[in-house]
Design goal:
single chain, alpha+beta
Length: about 625
C-alpha cells in the first residue's frame, strides 16, 4: 500500500468514527478478528491435512503425494504454533517493588480503584523522559494481558507529585474498564501482529511462504483502520486524567512536559556533552540534571518552546495528538505554567541511590563515546587557536568557520563581530548572513529581518531557511508589534520555498537508494562534526554516507546516511532515523535509512563506499 492509499483509509476511518462510533468500533473489531482467523485457518488446514493423511495410512492408501502432504501439514503446524507463541521482551529499566516506592504504589492503587481497571503487574524505572504503559498477551497471540508501567527518572525529577500522577492517570486510562477493553485488545493485537511479522521475515519456512502475502496486504490496512481508535483513546485517557486530578493540573502537566522536553533535548544534553572539553572521564548526567532542574527554563525559552509546540499539527506519523489539540479537548488555554517545585522523586525511597545507579550505567555505556567526544572538542579548540593566530589574514570562509566553531563549544559565545568581519569582505556570504541572523536578539526585529532579506536574495539555496526564520520572527509577539503585511509577504515566500523543498525531498526519498549517488564531499572538519553527533546516539553502531545528486537543486549538497541499529525493532528504528534527519550536523538535507530489508546491510556494504564511522573504532 502506498502513502496516498494509507492516508485515504485513515481519513475514511476518521469519518466513520465521527458519524457512528459504535458501528466503527464493531468494524474495527471484525477486521482485527480477521487476522486471528487467518492464523487459525492455517492451523486448521495443517491439522486437517495431518488427520486426512493419517486416516489414509490407516486404510493402507499411502502414496508419495500423501507423504509430501503430510510433510507440508507437519511443517505448517509447527510454523503456525511457533508463530502463535509470540515472545515479547521485558521493558528496559529496573523493576520497582512496594518497598522501593510505597507512595507511588499507593497512588497507583487509588487511581485503579477510581478507574475500576485491571492491576498493574510490574512497575519499571528507566532513564527516559517519559512514562508509558503497555499490555502484552500472556500466551503468544492469546490469553490474558500483563500490564507493565514504565516511569522515567528524569520525569520524576522534573514534575511535582500531582502532575506526575496526572501523567500516570493518563497512562492508566488506557487500561480502563469496559469502555477501554476494545482499545486495549486492539493495542495488544497490533503489538502481536508486528512481532509476528518480524518472525515471519526471519523465517523462510512454510508458514512464512503461506502468510507473508496475506500480512503484506493486512498490516497496513489494520494500522489505517485502527488509527482513529488509537487517537480517540489518547483523548479519552486525557479526559480521565482531568477527571481524577483536575483539567487544569492535566493541562499544566502536558505543557510543562512539552517545554521541558525541549529544554532537556536542546539545552541539558548539549550542556552535559560540552563537559567533555574539560572532563576526560564521563560524569553522571542525572546527578547534573538534579542540580539543573532546580533552576527552571528561562521565560523567553519557555515562551518560544510553547509557541513551537503550539504550531505543530497532528499527522499520521503518530497516534498521539499534538499539544494544541490536547489542550483544546481539555478546554484549557496554552500558557506557560507555574513550574513544579517539589520533584516527585520524593516518592521513591532513597532517590540518590537510583540516580547513582543510572549514572553508573550511563558512564559505563558511554565511556568510549565520551573519550571520542573529548578528543573532538579538543580538536575544535586547536582549530580555533589556529584561526585566531591568523587574525586579519582569515578569509570570509575562515571567519565564519571560527565563529561557528566557538558557538559549537558555547552556544552563547559572543561571535557576532566575526560574522560581520566576513560580510565586510564578502557582503553576500550565505554562511555569514545565516550566522549573523542567529546572533541578532529578537528585540532587534528590523535588523534581523534586513539580514534575512539579504540572505533570501543571496541565492535559492538559502531561501527556505531565510523565509522560515523571518516568519518565526514576525509571529513572535515578544519581538514587536504585529506586522500583517510583512508576515503575509514572508509567508508567501515560505510557501514557494516549501514547494521547492518538497519536490527536492520527494526526489531524495522516492528515487532508489543507490541511484544518483557519489562519494561524500565532506571535509575533515565536517566529517568530524558528523562523527561527534553519531557518538551521542548510542543505538547507532555503524554509519555510511553518500552524496545524492538532485535534479531539482543540482548545486545543493544532499546526503543519504545509512545506519546500523542493532537491538531495536523497526518502529524504534524509524523514529530514530527521523530524529537523526533533524539533528545530524551535515551541510545539507539528509535522508537517514537503517540497514534492514531495504536496503540490506549487504547492499550498503557493497555500494556505499565504506563506513564513515564505527562505534569503538
Amino acid at each position: 500500500m502506498d502513502r496516498a492509499d494509507f492516508v485515504h483509509l485513515v481519513r475514511l476511518s476518521e469519518h466513520a468514527s465521527a458519524e457512528d462510533s459504535a458501528r466503527y468500533r464493531r468494524g474495527v473489531a471484525a477486521f482485527a478478528a480477521l487476522g486471528y482467523l487467518w492464523v487459525l485457518a492455517c492451523l486448521g488446514l495443517a491439522m486437517g491435512l495431518i488427520v486426512w493423511v493419517a486416516v489414509s495410512l490407516g486404510d493402507g492408501r499411502f502414496s508419495v503425494s500423501r507423504g509430501w502432504l503430510l510433510l507440508f501439514g507437519l511443517g505448517l503446524l509447527w510454523a503456525t504454533v511457533r508463530a502463535l507463541w509470540v515472545r515479547f521482551d521485558e521493558p528496559d529499566g529496573l523493576e520497582l517493588s512496594r518497598e522501593d516506592a510505597p507512595q507511588l504504589f499507593e497512588a497507583l492503587d487509588r487511581i485503579r480503584s477510581k478507574i475500576k481497571g485491571p492491576p498493574v503487574h510490574h512497575v519499571y524505572l528507566d532513564d527516559d523522559f517519559n512514562a508509558s504503559i503497555r499490555q502484552v498477551p500472556r500466551f503468544g497471540l492469546f490469553g490474558g494481558a500483563v500490564n507493565s508501567l514504565s516511569i522515567g527518572l528524569p520525569l520524576l525529577m522534573m514534575l511535582d507529585r500531582r502532575r506526575l500522577l496526572s501523567v500516570l492517570a493518563h497512562e492508566y486510562g488506557h487500561l480502563r474498564g469496559n469502555h477501554g477493553k476494545l482499545s486495549a485488545w486492539i493495542y495488544r493485537t497490533r503489538l502481536s501482529w508486528l512481532k509476528l511479522d518480524a518472525n515471519l521475515q526471519r523465517n523462510e519456512g512454510v508458514m512464512a511462504i503461506v502468510s507473508q502475502a496475506f500480512f503484506r496486504w493486512y498490516f497496513p490496512r489494520f494500522a489505517a483502520k485502527t488509527f482513529a481508535l488509537a487517537r480517540q483513546d489518547e483523548y479519552e485517557a486525557d479526559r480521565i486524567s482531568g477527571r481524577l486530578l483536575g483539567t487544569s493540573v492535566a493541562a499544566a502537566a502536558l505543557t510543562e512536559i512539552s517545554i521541558k522536553a525541549n529544554w532537556y533535548a536542546n539545552e541539558f544534553w548539549p550542556w552535559h556533552w560540552a563537559r567533555a572539553e574539560r572532563e576526560p572521564l564521563p560524569p553522571g548526567p542525572f546527578a547534573g540534571l538534579r542540580e539543573c532542574v532546580a533552576t527552571p527554563p528561562g521565560p523567553e525559552f519557555a515562551r518560544q518552546a510553547l509557541r513551537e509546540a503550539m504550531r505543530r499539527v497532528s499527522d499520521l506519523e503518530d497516534t498521539h495528538p499534538v499539544l494544541r489539540d490536547r489542550l483544546e479537548a481539555l478546554r484549557q488555554k496554552a500558557t506557560v505554567p507555574a513550574w513544579s517545585k517539589r520533584p516527585a522523586l520524593e516518592m521513591l525511597v532513597e532517590g540518590p541511590r537510583w540516580i547513582a545507579h543510572f549514572d553508573a550505567q550511563w558512564r559505563q555505556a558511554h565511556a568510549a563515546d565520551w573519550k571520542q567526544h573529548h578528543a573532538h572538542r579538543s580538536r575544535i579548540r586547536e582549530r580555533i587557536a589556529v584561526l585566531a593566530a591568523r587574525g586579519e589574514r582569515n578569509t570570509p570562509d575562515e571567519w565564519v568557520e571560527w565563529a561557528d566553531a566557538e558557538r559549537r563549544l558555547d552556544t552563547s559565545a559572543p561571535v557576532r563581530e566575526r560574522y560581520e568581519r566576513a560580510l565586510r569582505i564578502a557582503p553576500e556570504h550565505p554562511g555569514a548572513l545565516r550566522g549573523l541572523a542567529q546572533m541578532i536578539p529578537s528585540t532587534e526585529r528590523e535588523t534581523r529581518l534586513a539580514v534575512l532579506e539579504r540572505l533570501h536574495e543571496a541565492g535559492a539555496a538559502s531561501r527556505w531557511w531565510a523565509a522560515r526564520n523571518a516568519v518565526a520572527v514576525l509571529e513572535n509577539p515578544d519581538a514587536g508589534p504585529h506586522d500583517e503585511a510583512g508576515l503575509k509577504h514572508w509567508r508567501g515566500r515560505l510557501k514557494e520555498a516549501e514547494e521547492a523543498e518538497a519536490r527536492a525531498w520527494e526526489e531524495l526519498t522516492e528515487t532508489p537508494s543507490f541511484s544518483q549517488i557519489g562519494r561524500h564531499d565532506l571535509n575533515e572538519h565536517e566529517l568530524d562534526e558528523l562523527r561527534a553527533d553519531l557518538v551521542r546516539n548510542l543505538p547507532v553502531s555503524r554509519a555510511w554516507l553518500v552524496r545524492k545528486n538532485l535534479r531539482e537543486f543540482p548545486w545543493r549538497r544532499a546526503f543519504v546516511v545509512f545506519v546500523e541499529l542493532p537491538g531495536l525493532d523497526d518502529e524504534e528504528r524509524w523514529q530514530l532515523c527521523r530524529q537523526l534527519e533533524q539533528t545530524l550536523s551535515l551541510p545539507g538535507v539528509a535522508l537517514v535509512l537503517w540497514a534492514g530489508h531495504s536496503p540490506t546491510l549487504e547492499d550498503i556494504e557493497r555500494q556505499a563506499f565504506g563506513a564513515v564511522w564505527t562505534r569503538g573504532a
